[in-house]
């Protein structure tokens, strides 16, 4: 029994010693913080990039640290502006924008290749990563890629002249903008083309100049008469303008931006020409102006490029090098002309009062409407026919009270003078007049206090056919 107890005690002792030994080993393998975390590495032959990310901020902290390290690496790559570069020329013209340098740096960052992972480190809160890029290898890769880009741009420029020869204005311009787009990362450096392969284009400035020249070749075909807009219409027919090039060929299928300083006119800001060079300017709302309104048409090169990544990459920078021309078009904004025609009879005889016509004219008096004196000057014609007749209750009243009862009926009709289409009809009734004879009773019906109210109700709906507020 004693032997068993001795063996048990010995086993416990050995296990305890082993646990202490393992604890000592565990403490011995504690990860040390690398020197590059606390002190930035310095290598004359390498570009260095160190990035860190907080673990608690994102589950994708490793990618965030890598992004920061590459950005840090790219910041070591100094972008020197060549004296023969586009940016140098612009800078000397005092039009240089510091954002250009940032854009070029970012473009270079996206194109960095050949970097190598040196080390990584993490603790409970942070993740660190360390990259290096051989300076000579980077210079060789960049020179090779630059030459490939120049060759690609040269090919696009050459194809643009072929499109121009085939009178494809949009495709020609698009290829030239694409060529500028692919060259954007190298605008701080000297770029030269083989003029024999690019139809005389030698530099990027030559490229921007021909893009500018092409945009300025867009002209407006003068119209004999300006289109006319009316206020508060339910729908508007598009305003039609025709654009062409200086070669007198139609500007086909080309997108444009439309703008206006008139707050009282709402328009669609984007449009394009068709195969005939016709542009439809779509108006959505017009308030009274009674004068000529102007609209500006500008080439929409962003829409021209669509989803093309090559072209869109350079548009922001390109707009700093060129002036997008603007063409002015006009339209007249006139009042709605209304001609009011009224017939008023009392038992077949003219009353000579013109009461109905006066009420109608009064209801349509306003800054958006003008009452005209001739039918051929009108946009709309309102016709009213008023007539009295003996009411069916007149005989009973006469036999009992010696009083005659007359009723007044009014027919209203609205006509579109251009199409001659009748677009609204209404009847106004239940207007009565009393007197000891029918003629006086009929005249009294015209002075019934309810006449103005009942007529106004019908005119409200009639007016909505002319204007929608």
What would you say this structure looks like, in words?
With 469 residues, the protein is of the alpha+beta class. It folds into four domains: 30 residues; 81 residues, Dodecin subunit-like, CATH 3.30.1660; 87 residues, Immunoglobulin-like, CATH 2.60.40; 131 residues, Double Stranded RNA Binding Domain, CATH 3.30.160. The chain has 14 helices and 19 strands. The strands form five sheets. Strands 14, 15, 16, 17, 18 and 19 form a six-stranded mixed beta sheet that branches. A five-stranded mixed beta sheet has the order 5-13-12-7-9. Strand 18 and strand 19 form a beta hairpin. Helix 3 crosses helix 5, helix 6 packs antiparallel against helix 7 and helix 11 packs across helix 14. The longest helix is centred in the first third of the chain and has 31 residues. The radius of gyration is 42 Å and the shape is elongated. The N terminus is likely disordered.
How do you describe this structure in short?
With 469 residues, the protein is of the alpha+beta class. 39% of the residues lie in helices and 27% in strands. It folds into four domains: 1-30; 36-79 and 99-135, Dodecin subunit-like (2-Layer Sandwich), CATH 3.30.1660; 220-299 and 327-333, Immunoglobulin-like (Sandwich), CATH 2.60.40; 336-466, Lipoprotein like domain (Double Stranded RNA Binding Domain).
């Amino acid at each position: 029994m004693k032997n068993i107890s001795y063996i048990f005690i010995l086993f416990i002792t050995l296990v305890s010693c082993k646990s202490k030994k393992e604890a000592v080993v565990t403490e011995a393998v504690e990860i040390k913080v690398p020197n590059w975390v606390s002190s930035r590495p310095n290598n004359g032959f390498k570009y260095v990039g160190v990035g860190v990310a907080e673990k608690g901020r994102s589950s994708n902290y490793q990618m965030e640290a890598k992004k920061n390290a590459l950005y840090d690496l790219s910041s070591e790559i100094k972008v020197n502006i060549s004296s023969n570069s586009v940016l140098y020329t612009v800078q000397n013209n005092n039009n240089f924008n510091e954002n250009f340098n940032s854009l070029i740096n970012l473009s270079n960052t996206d194109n960095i290749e050949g970097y190598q992972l040196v080390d990584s480190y993490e603790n409970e809160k942070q993740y660190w990563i360390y990259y290096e890029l051989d300076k000579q290898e980077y210079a060789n890769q960049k020179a090779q890629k630059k030459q490939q880009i120049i060759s690609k741009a040269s090919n696009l420029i050459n194809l643009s002249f072929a499109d121009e020869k085939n009178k494809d204005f949009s495709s020609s311009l698009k290829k030239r903008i694409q060529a500028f787009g692919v060259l954007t990362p190298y605008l701080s450096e000297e770029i030269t083309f083989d003029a024999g392969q690019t139809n005389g284009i030698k530099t990027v400035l030559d490229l921007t100049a021909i893009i500018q020249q092409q945009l300025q070749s867009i002209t407006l075909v003068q119209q004999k008469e300006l289109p006319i807009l009316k206020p508060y219409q339910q729908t508007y027919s598009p305003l039609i303008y025709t654009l062409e090039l200086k070669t007198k060929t139609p500007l086909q299928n080309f997108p444009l931006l439309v703008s206006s300083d008139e707050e009282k006119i709402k328009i669609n800001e984007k449009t394009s020409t068709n195969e005939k060079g016709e542009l439809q300017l779509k108006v959505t709302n017009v308030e009274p102006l009674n004068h000529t309104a102007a609209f500006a048409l500008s080439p929409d090169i962003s829409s021209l490029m669509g989803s093309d990544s090559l072209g869109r990459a350079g548009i922001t920078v390109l707009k700093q090098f060129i002036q997008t021309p603007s063409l002015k078009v006009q339209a007249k904004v006139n009042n709605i002309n209304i001609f009011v025609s009224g017939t008023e009879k009392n038992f077949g005889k003219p009353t000579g009062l013109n009461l109905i016509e006066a009420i109608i004219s009064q209801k349509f008096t306003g800054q958006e409407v003008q009452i005209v004196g001739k039918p051929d000057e009108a946009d709309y014609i309102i016709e009213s026919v008023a007539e009295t007749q003996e009411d069916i209750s007149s005989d009973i009243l006469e036999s009992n009270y010696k009083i005659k009862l007359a009723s007044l009926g009014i027919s209203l009709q609205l006509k579109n003078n251009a199409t001659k289409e009748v677009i609204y009809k209404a009847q106004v009734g239940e207007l009565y007049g009393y007197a000891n004879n029918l003629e006086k009773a009929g005249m009294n019906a015209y002075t019934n206090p309810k006449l103005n109210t009942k007529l106004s109700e019908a005119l409200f709906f009639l007016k909505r056919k002319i204007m929608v507020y």
